[in-house]
Amino acid sequence: MSTKAKVVDHDFANSAVPAANRRGLVTMFMIMMGFTFFSASMWVGQQLAKGLDLSGFIGALVIGGIILGGYTGALGFIGAESGLSLDLLAQRSFGIKGSYLPSAMISFTQAGWFGVGLAMFAIPVAKALFGDSQTVMYAMVALAGICMTATAYYGIKSLTAISYIAVPCVAILGGAAMFMAIAQGEGTIAEQFAKSSGDLTIISGAGLVVGSFVSGGTATPNFTRFAKDAKTGFWTTVIAFFIGNSLMFCFGAVSSIFVGGNANDIFDVMLKLGLFWTAVLVLGLNIWTTNDNALYSTGLGLSNITGMSKKTMVLFSGALGTVLAVWLYNNFCPFLGMLNATLPPIGIILVLSYFMHRDQYKIGAKVQLKQIEWGSVIGVIAGAVVANLLPFGIASINGMVVAAICYIIGDKMSN
After folding, report:
1. If phi over 0 gives left and psi between -120 and 50 gives alpha, with beta otherwise, what is residue 83?
2. pLDDT at res. 6
3. Which end of the chain is more exposed for a tag (fewer CB within 10 A), N or C?
4. Do residues 102 and 275 make contact, with C-beta atoms less than 8 angstroms apart?
5. What is the pTM assigned to this prediction?
6. Spatial distance between the Cα atoms of 284 and 145, rounded to a whole number of angstroms
């Protein structure tokens, strides 16, 4: 008589994370800080530096940080208290088949950013080392893709290990390079910011801050479900998003001011300072943490849709993102920017559903799930349309307001 060894899913793709597998304050802070180290946020930092003076830059960071922190903090809270991933939360708020919509949207955008991230690392490094060699560039894309897919494959344990390495390295080395650049610049940083075009308002700047990572922030429950309690999930998210994002914006702003308009990020600052290998380390670790989290969320989302394991979907998504990385980098960024505004309606519906029907989310609760919650589905579609078409306000907030109205109306009608 043979017995099969029971396979343990340490990432709990289809169930709540039990108390024995939860993590404490420091570990969760490291994971969430690594999550916020998003290289594309440096591009936003450049835009802010070009369009605002120093006081406006700081004001935009504070206002945008409060909005983004409130949004992700609420998602962090419900993920930690329920122990459920975004996709399992969506099954309750969107229905079993209705949850395919948010799962697909999250998976599509995060897989896209994974590919873009690979190219953001490989292209400047390959160019600095070997000029315009296409062979070297694609080889570096492949190598980075294999390494990042491998760590995402092993799930939360690998994400934790990478975060413990990357967060202090990026913060310390990147921060040191930023201050070195400021010290070598002409005039004070306030004087440098004063040269901006002034074509941004603080509110429009805050909108850029929110939009920079509100899409990735929607996946926050995928990580905070491992927090030991709801307070830990909430506060580590809020603090990490504010500190991590602000650091990325400052890196981008400094690159724009002290290196010039063609600078990509802190990588170019370090090259100008003669810190090539430090630049490679900081850029690589910065992108690695974000890409791992993006691919992890993609795996969970596709697993919810297909019924296949998260690991299988991580391998599939990683391979696809690696093959398409350079094409995505050259063609997909504007489209991903549009998609960024479509994801906040998902997050606000998850939050509303949770607090309006809290008993249904308790661990062990007996819940009869519907196939589709039409108010939620319509809310996401309507919110996405409004977010992308309404010419005033902050796009993500506009979308969330419309989605919330649709969800509340649909919920009252169905109950």
Report:
1. left
2. 53
3. N
4. no
5. 0.91
6. 12
Asked whether the beta carbons of 92 and 367 are under 8 A apart, the reply is: yes
CA 36 to chain centre: 6
Q: How many CB atoms lie within 10 A of CB 320?
A: 16
DSSP state of 343: S
The low-confidence residues of the chain, meaning pLDDT below 50, are 1-5, 261
pLDDT tens per residue, range 4-57: 445 567 789 889 999 999 999 999 999 999 999 887 788 888 888 888 988 999
23 — phi, psi (to 5°)? -120, 155
For 387, residues 6+ apart whose C-beta sits below 8 A from its C-beta are 341, 342, 344, 345, 395, 396, 398, 399, 402
The SS3 call for residue 115 is helix
Distance CA 132, CA 138 (A): 11
CA pair distance 126, 136, nearest whole angstrom: 6
Handedness of CA 40, 141, 310, 305 (dihedral sign): positive
How many residues make up the chain in this entry?
A: 415
Helices (H), 170-201: 175-184, 189-193
Alpha carbon distance 297, 102 (integer Å): 12
Quick one: tokens of 313? 């979907």
Q: Under DSSP, is residue 407 helix (H, G, I), strand (E, B) or coil?
A: helix
Q: What's the N-to-C CA distance of the chain in angstroms?
A: 52
Residue 214 phi/psi, 5-degree rounding, is -70, -25
Rg (CA), the chain: 21
